[in-house]
Amino acid sequence: MEFSHKPVLLDECIEGLNLRPGGTYVDGTAGGGGHSCEIAKRLDPSKGRLISLDKDPDAVAAASQRLAPFPWAQVIQSDFAQIPQVLDDLKIKRIDGILLDLGVSSHQLDTPERGFSYHGDAPLDMRMSQAGFSARDLVNQWEVGDMARIFRELGEERYALPIAKNIVRAREKKPLETTGELAEIIASSIPAAARREGGHPAKRTFQAIRIAVNGELDSLSQCLDTAFERLAPGGRFCIITFHSLEDRMVKQKFAALARGCICPPDFPVCVCGRKPRAALVTRKAIAPSQRELDENSRSHSAHLRIVERTEEFQEENI
């Protein structure tokens, strides 16, 4: 299967993971296997281990094919929010690194029938897992207020309410079926001056619908809360984000892990006794180089943040 997806910030991720040849690593977003392949190449065939996850069956098939030369790499269809469960099933207690490359893949965007793109006219879908609740379900079933809320919160769309109202008006005549129909409604709901402010007028709304359909922020929050617990001391957590909502969540969680003490700032001494659980490897997010931007325009909004676990690993907690 052809699964085109150029890995973003590849060199920075490999360096950031601080790979040990005999270590065990999890790539929570296998995609086409770009990052996974480079990790697998650097592991000791007799000691190293790579677990690559993706909830998209197309990605699982493509990554499995690409990683076939590396028997120490295993591909599993699963959401990265389920990393602890996957590790339990494999009887793995601790790991040495986790990588997440969030967002939508080039393959998903460039395959019209997947319904992720506002370019062209294709069935409304946007399901990464290709199962369950779809974009078509959302725009034809949700109330005005609920749609406006996610367009505003998840897409940072200024014209969220007019867009939601016009979607409801349109579906009263007939159900919305295609990306082209939806994109046209969105564009007509935005003032002409605002439509000229750069970027496609449907970009923010499509982003919001995709995030809602796939539960992306919920999965990220769950992963941040639970996957870190499986890192061994010195293990690193590397996350590539593509929009401000994801980046803010990652930044705040990593900062909290590295902060330790939660006493009010006016306390003369610490009474909570909490110590930092991690150290920030990147105090400022890493952005793509100009060379990468020139070679891959879809990397322009990528930000990489890395944290390293510093506390002792508690076996009894697993």
Strand and helix map with partners:
Elements: H1 10-17, E1 24-27, H2 34-41, E2 49-54, H3 57-66, E3 73-77, H4 83-89, E4 95-101, H5 106-110, H6 135-141, H7 144-155, H8 160-173, H9 179-189, H10 192-195, H11 203-214, H12 216-226, E5 231-241, H13 244-259, E6 278-280, H14 290-295, E7 303-309
Parallel strand pairs: 1-2, 1-4, 2-3, 4-5
Antiparallel strand pairs: 5-7, 6-7
Keywords:
318 residues; alpha/beta; Rossmann fold; DNA polymerase, domain 1; 7 strands; globular
Short note summarizing the structure:
41% of the residues lie in helices and 14% in strands. It has 318 residues and is an alpha/beta fold.
Description:
The chain contains 14 helices and seven strands. The protein is α/β, with parallel strands linked by helices and 318 residues long. It has two domains: 10-107 and 217-317, Rossmann fold; 111-214, DNA polymerase, domain 1 (Orthogonal Bundle), CATH 1.10.150. A seven-stranded mixed sheet has the order 3-2-1-4-5-7-6, sandwiched between helices. Strand 1, helix 2 (34-41) and strand 2 (49-54) form a beta-alpha-beta unit.
